[in-house]
Amino acid sequence: MIRFLITIVICVAHCGGAAAPDRVAWLRGELNRHDRLYWEELSPEISDSEYDALAAEWRDLTGRQWRAGDIEAEWTDRVAHRTPMLSLEKLHTEVDWHRFLGRMERRGVAPERFRLEPKYDGVALSLVYKRGELAYALTRGDGREGRVVTANVLRVSAIPEIIPALQNWQVVEVRGELYATLAQFERINDWRSAMKAHPYPLPRHAVAALLRVNDIGTLPEKTVSFVAFELRSAPRHWEPESQSETIQWLESLGFAVPKPSWEHLAKDEVLKKVSQFAELRHRLNYPTDGLVIKVEARNQQEQLGHTARAPRWAAAWKYPGETAVTEIQSIVESTGATGRITPVAHIRPVNLEGVTVHRVSLHSRQIVENHGLQPGSIIRIHLGGGIVPAILLDQKAVTGK
Questions:
Q1: Same structural domain for residues 104 and 221?
Q2: Cα-flanking dihedrals φ and ψ of residue 346, to 5°?
Q3: Catalytic residue among 119, 273, 294, 318
Q4: Is 140 within a domain?
């Protein structure tokens, strides 16, 4: 049985009139707190969009990109990435799409062909092969350095440790996403239940947690999947002309690659596929909240380059989340891994994005009291951004039965 802990949308008040240094300090504290709630407590309090708004304000005030992976700074055994692992610009509307095109054109590049592939929701990995043998696997970390997770990755996935076709090549770096299908997520939580441990709230959390286990002998074997979608270093005598050619080559090496995908699409075809995928994604067996749009021609990618935080030739189209109305059946208290006590509501099961939702984190007794939540309360559940779920609390969303 798949169980999700659904988060409540909590409005973050702006500290009006506060001096910039005070606001920066507050933002640093809030972002660190939400990072820990998300990755350690497995009980996020805000949606992706609200977190992004805090990170954007941090960037505007400090001129620096907030790195969610900074929480990994406490871990040892870190290695610098050969090139930075960047994030993707987010698109939500047709206006955003045309602005994305306009920014490229203003740099003297007018791409005519694009590649589209699903945006997998898991943990980004860098795999570095030397003479055909996996030298190490790194998490994204802060984008500059990542944590070495080679042993965990080889234990929980089917990533190839040796690739004979690469034995004559000094270094090849493959990037992609380690993720759990819905069936794999269910099996992982069955394993957790057998250990008398709390189930993971999201597939993304499950994958991240498996990579953080020190005693790898306790981990279930071959329980998650990896999809390769980027080549960062390859022999100089081999230069793919298109993104799709790169993907074909990665597949020939034995890697799983993004599917479904669309190659060499004209500009006017992109939005049509975006619209079609909005429905198709619900039939996939893995979590996704959008599409990644990439310029097809590799020479144009090189001409466009990247900013400090994202490539100029790629973006992620994010879909709005689904909503559903359900009823609270009971409220119990749950103790997290760090001893934090959280009220949890058992709800009438509802389906969102193909996943059956059974449980809801209410986060604090104060929230329960302020909104009068009790068995019989009717709530509206929103899957914010398609991945981070939320309860919409307003006069229309919560009523007595």
A1: yes
A2: -85, 130
A3: 119
A4: yes
Please determine, for residue 8, whether its predicted confidence score (pLDDT) is greater than 50.
Answer: no
* Other CB atoms within 10 Å distance of the CB of residue 130: 15
Residues composing the chain: 401
C-alpha count within 13 angstroms, C-beta hemisphere, residue 28: 10
Q: Is residue 401 part of a domain?
A: no
Q: Which residue, of 273, 295, 318, is where some domain finishes?
A: 318
β-strands 378-384, 355-361: how paired? unpaired
- Domain-embedded: residue 399: no
> Is residue 280 domain-resident?
yes
pTM: 0.76
Q: Are 109 and 196 found together in one domain?
A: yes
196 catalytic, yes or no? no
User: How confident is the model over 272-305, as pLDDT tens digits?
Assistant: 999 999 989 988 999 888 999 999 999 999 999 9
Q: Report the amino acid identity of residue 347.
A: I
pLDDT of residue 176: 97
What is the per-residue pLDDT across 191-242, written as a single tens digit (0 to 9) for each?
988 888 877 777 888 898 899 888 888 888 899 999 999 988 766 667 789 9
Q: Which of 383, 377, 386 is nearest to 5 (CA)?
A: 383
Residue 108 has φ and ψ, to the nearest 5°, of: 85, 15
Residues sharing a CB contact under 8 Å with residue 258, sequence separation 6 or more, in sequence order = 117, 118, 120, 227, 229, 247, 292
